[in-house]
UniProtKB/TrEMBL annotation:
PANTHER family: EQUILIBRATIVE NUCLEOSIDE TRANSPORTER, EQUILIBRATIVE NUCLEOSIDE TRANSPORTER 4. One of its GO terms (molecular function) is nucleoside transmembrane transporter activity. The chain crosses the membrane at residues 16-35, 55-74, 86-105, 111-135, 147-169, 175-196, 280-301, 321-340, 352-370, 419-441. The keyword Transport applies. GO terms for cellular component: plasma membrane. It is found in: Membrane. It is a multi-pass membrane protein. Keywords: Membrane, Transmembrane, Transmembrane helix, Transport. Belongs to the SLC29A/ENT transporter (TC 2.A.57) family. It comes from Halteria grandinella. This is Equilibrative nucleoside transporter. Coiled coil: none annotated.
């Protein structure tokens, strides 16, 4: 008998509402980090000896891997609304405390409070990000592209907000930062209610039910709940996630001699392993993309001068606009790359994407040449080279990560797509954490240009 869900017509995403909301959730998933990133000039001014541009990235992302893994194992006990909307509200409630504490406390105490808040961000962020990518994995491929596009738009939207506050209140860094973080908090609160509406869409409910039904059937089969479980004599699992016979005589007829029951948790881990084995090529590539990015961004690649901004006499204001310009350039070209990678005409063969991904290590070399003033001044010392280097660096970050994030779930069966989605979030976070950790040392090894 066919499953009831197979007889139902597939609901449409009327008006592209689900797609638009997934873009919005992509914006919100990285909003806490982008809010910190685009206001680093404020924190650097208040705590210059603590190097926030190097340390904050690790503080925000250090726990994301652990919370993402915990969410993979235990997240099914809680609804998506609780995990995602609750996470948004938790982050929003803490975000305003950052500028208040930084301004009110002595630098050392402010740094300790900020690190504590950012660590909590990491806990909430891990739950929100992994749950968002899990949803993307269960929906058709373009919705994973929507999340990745939203990640890029997150930076651009916050860049614009930061530029407005910086231009409107150039002489009061604290008030500008406070207003900026209040705006970011309001965006998260709006996203919390938008996600509640998202879960009510028939289109979304259909694909979540489809993925969950397949996952539950596979878990029951692996755990031996049903006597008709597809288990071969030697109980060997193939890479598709199904037990198949491996003896010479077993064509397509499965011989069940004994069904050994295992715990549902162990069955789930078996599914996790199978899902990873099917998609690991692209998952490891995602790790590589963000590792390279966070080794040099923002700590090293933004540590330079833009000579056409020297007309700004106020040194602190010039530094603020320089960092904002570099970060805006990164977010702009990163978003262009994400958008192109998510279009049907923008895809490339697997091998080309992988070559592009691992070729990004060259940006570590070019960025350090700029930072150390090595090479001919007409090249590495010129504004055009710095901006072109940033543009290519950012574009490949967005394009390669999105292509890999779309390709990974397509390699998995329906029962594993949610797990692969969570693996994508873990891969992104792992790359960020490893890159941010190495950035703590690379920032200390280089002297940078005088600001």
């Amino acid at each position: 008998m066919q499953n009831k869900i197979e007889k139902q017509p597939i609901p449409e995403d009327k008006g592209g509402v689900a797609y638009i909301l997934m873009v919005l959730f992509g914006i919100a998933a990285l909003l806490p980090w982008n809010a910190i990133l685009t206001s680093l000039d404020f924190f650097e001014k208040k705590m210059p000896t603590y190097q926030p541009s190097s340390v904050f990235g690790f503080a925000v992302n250090g726990l994301l891997v652990f919370t993402s893994v915990a969410n993979m194992i235990y997240g099914h006990k809680f609804s998506y609304v609780l995990r995602i909307s609750g996470g948004y509200l938790g982050i929003a409630s803490l975000m305003v405390i950052l500028p208040l504490a930084t301004n009110a406390l002595e630098a050392g105490n402010a740094f300790a409070v900020d690190i504590s808040i950012l660590t909590i961000f990491g806990v909430f962020g891990g739950i929100v990000q992994s749950s968002t990518f899990a949803l993307g994995g269960m929906l058709p491929g373009k919705y994973m592209g929507a999340i990745m596009l939203g990640n890029g738009l997150s930076g651009i939207s916050l860049n614009i907000c930061r530029a407005i506050t910086l231009a409107a209140i150039p002489d009061d860094y604290y008030m500008g930062a406070l207003i900026y973080f209040i705006l970011a908090s309001l965006i998260l609160i709006f996203c919390a209610f938008a996600h509640w509406k998202f879960q009510q869409l028939e289109f979304v409910k259909y694909y979540i039910k489809l993925a969950n039904d397949e996952k539950n059937k596979t878990q029951r089969r692996i755990s031996g709940v049903h006597g008709s479980a597809l288990i071969s004599e030697d109980a060997e699992i193939n890479k598709s996630g199904n037990y198949l016979p491996t003896t010479d005589r077993g064509s397509q007829l499965l011989q069940v001699k004994e069904v050994k029951e295992i715990s549902p948790l162990r069955a789930f881990f078996s599914m996790m392993f199978t899902a990873f084995k099917l998609s690991y090529t692209f998952l490891l590539s995602i790790v590589c993309v963000f590792f390279v990015t966070f080794v040099i961004f923002p700590a090293v690649i933004c540590d330079t001068n833009i000579y056409f901004l020297h007309f700004i006499q106020n040194t602190d204001l010039r530094i603020g606009w320089t960092m904002l310009m570099f970060i805006f350039a990164f977010n702009l070209f990163d978003t262009i790359g994400r958008w192109l990678a998510g279009q049907s005409f923008g895809g490339l063969p697997d091998k080309v994407v992988l070559v592009m991904t691992y070729s990004r290590f060259i940006f570590i070399a070019t960025t350090f040449l700029v930072d150390q003033n090595v090479g001919p001044a007409w090249l590495t010392g010129s504004d055009w080279f710095k901006l072109v280097n940033m543009a290519l660096f950012a574009f490949t970050n967005g394009y390669c990560s999105t292509q890999c994030a779309i390709k990974a779930p397509s390699r998995a069966l329906e029962d594993s797509k949610e797990v692969v989605g969570i693996f994508i979030g873990i891969s992104i976070t792992s790359g960020i954490v490893m890159g941010s950790l190495l950035a703590l040392f690379t920032k200390g090894l280089v002297h940078g240009n005088p600001k």
